[in-house]
Amino acid sequence: MSSFQSSLISEYHCFNCDADNPSVLKRKSTRNAKKIDYVALNNGEELRSKDMHRHIERFINFENDKPFDQLVHIIEEDQFNKLDDNYIENLIQKYHSKKPILIKRINPNIFPKNKSKLNLKFPQMSVSDITKVIGEDRPVEVMDVLTQNNSTSWNLGHWRDYYNKPFEDRDRIRNVISLEFSDTELNDLIDIPNFIKSIDVVNELYSAGIIDIKPKVSKYCLMSVKNSFTDFHIDFGGTSVYYTVLKGYKSFIMYPPTADNLKSYENWCLNDNQNSTWFGDLIKPIEQQQFLDKDGEDYYYLNNGLKIDIEAGDLLILPSGWIHSVYTAQDSVVIGGNFLTVSSINTHLKIFEIEKITKVPEKYKFPNFNRIMWLVGYNYLKNGDTGKLSNDEIDSLKALLNFYKIQYNQLYPTKTESSNSETTKKTNSNKNFKQVLKNSIPTGVIGSISQFINDLEKWIDSINHNKELTNGNKSNGEYLKRKIKTEDVSPSNKVKKAKVK
Ligand SMILES: O=C(O)CCC(=O)C(=O)O
């Protein structure tokens, strides 16, 4: 410890004792004494308080560089009379990755006079109420805010006791952001808005009978104490998020998933100094309007990031693939959930790739993502109506087709490809990679991979002809002219129901 650091301490307790009985900084009142983070200090980092993540100051000082209503699509109470599920669904489809949507004071359990026709069911509940409904013994993963590491040794009873302590009696700042409760009794008390259910890809596959178990990602209860901070991240699979505050107050800073920003994000994740680097410093500023997309939205206009405050009763729709961090200024309870949409498939696939490159552990990925992506194409081929597809859907199908082809080529490289490929020289890891990939493709449902790709390609071509689309990667129908190999023909292609675990 430097002499400067020791000069700040009036009563020193060693690292081992500090957890129960922290060192006291020189201050008038011991009640307000700062708790030193000895975990960080021991790792050679600077002296700092356990109550404050190092980036909170940067977060608080961040200011939007443009008027708020140009950065976010805001819906206020005076627009509620036109608000129904269709209206919001169309907005989400229109913006998909492009703009966050914030609906102010929409929760009727908090604002009973609100006149919207949305079916929101988000009752106000305390952490004690939630614990009573779910059960004290339910294990819960708890994030230590300063290190951003998760601990699995907690249950809800312990968490409630921690959360209900006054601020100054909490040993460290901790946050719960991954308690999915759709398999608990809380599930019946809370309902996802219809406008989310109707565009959620997983829901669509479930309704079509293509999967019979849904991945558990749609209902999370987040319980954060004052001064919680979640560093920048992208939600798994580039999912969109609905997020509503039941109690307290939350602030987001977010950046759109432009190619440059995603590259910066990837580099930041792979950097040894990730924790000490403020992600916003890696964003290349764009001063001037770049271009308008086909809906007239200037996606790049938002590039410098934006900050959104969310109060109790508000609902945020975070678009697909956005890079965000979250600060909690007051003890808060939030309900949120993740969903994949067809219009954002391109972004989902990009983020899936980044997760591979940055080696995100399986546990933190969207469950069975690859399998679901194949089943989306299968569902279109089986149930889609070529006459009714939007241009966004067609673009997404083309992206999916390309994604399938890449995987097919990884599984069955041509002779030239395999002799050129560096990876095939690492025979064992390559075999393992292929096995994992093969297991994640639902051949029990789609049948032969090559036949499926051929059929889908022909189907997409037929839409192209009907719509006389000339832009995009128009397929020439030339793929897979080579002979279909026997080993990729599933023996069980009559089984048409997949299980998602
Ligand atoms: O509320 C938080 O601290 C983090 C929430 C979040 O970013 C998420 O769940 O993706």
UniProtKB/TrEMBL annotation:
Transmembrane segments: none annotated. The keyword Iron applies. Its main location: nucleus. It catalyses: N(6),N(6)-dimethyl-L-lysyl(36)-[histone H3] + 2 2-oxoglutarate + 2 O2 = L-lysyl(36)-[histone H3] + 2 formaldehyde + 2 succinate + 2 CO2. One of its GO terms (cellular component) is nucleus. Residues 181-356 form the JmjC domain. GO terms for molecular function: histone H3K36me/H3K36me2 demethylase activity; metal ion binding. InterPro entries: Cupin_8 (IPR041667), JHD (IPR041070), JHDM1_Histone_Demethylase (IPR050690), JmjC_dom (IPR003347). Pfam families: Cupin_8, JHD. It is an enzyme of class 1 (oxidoreductase). Its cofactor is Fe(2+). PANTHER family: PHD/F-BOX CONTAINING PROTEIN. Belongs to the JHDM1 histone demethylase family. This is [histone H3]-dimethyl-L-lysine(36) demethylase.
